[in-house]
Amino acid sequence: MQEKHQSITKNKLWEIIPRPSDESVVTSKWIYKIKHVFDGSIEKYKEIFIARGFCQKDDIDYEETFVPTTRYNTIKLLFSLDATMEWNIHQMDAKTTFLNGTIDEEVFIEQPKGFKFYSRDYHVCNLRRPYMV
Predict the structure, then answer these.
(1) Residue 80's pLDDT is what?
(2) Residue 8 in contact with residue 1, Cβ under 8 Å?
(3) How many angstroms separate the CA atoms of 120 and 16, rounded?
(4) Structural domain contains residue 61
């Protein structure tokens, strides 16, 4: 959690501001997962910080949504190209991914539990750009 929060802070994903009285604030939470090796032993502990966007209302809190995903056919195409072109494929695990862009709307999110800089009642995070975990 500390490493993820440091990455978010370093990349200036949000700024901590006083809670606006006339805006809705999206709740947030940490989700924990244990990754196992094939023999059942623990490989590592993972954490994900998520914004609980389901509490927003269409045409009130947001105008559109975008979730970058990869289709299975795209992955098959890349493996096919790899075999044909004799490319080398490398696997990597990104700890945090930040989208290159800015958010046009004002999006306010609760501060992450355990990492409050101010009183939770009076300060929130104002997102500056999209974020994926």
Answers:
(1) 93
(2) no
(3) 11
(4) yes
Those residues of the chain that have pLDDT short of 50 are 133
Instruction: Give the sign of the dihedral formed by CA 66, CA 72, CA 77, CA 80.
Output: positive
* Confidence at residue 54, expressed as pLDDT on a 0 to 100 scale: 63
Residue 60 is predicted with a pLDDT of 57
pLDDT at 58: 61
Query: Domain residues for 110?
Result: 2-66+93-132
Determine, yes or no, domain membership for 36: yes
Which DSSP category does 63 fall into?
Answer: S
Residue 77 lies in a domain: no
Q: Are 42 and 36 in contact (CB under 8 A)?
A: yes
Residue 12: CA count within 13 A, CB half-sphere = 4
Asked whether residue 83 is domain-assigned, the answer is: no
Q: How many domains does the chain have?
A: 1
Under 8 Å between Cβ of 42 and 71: no
pTM beyond 0.70: the answer is: no
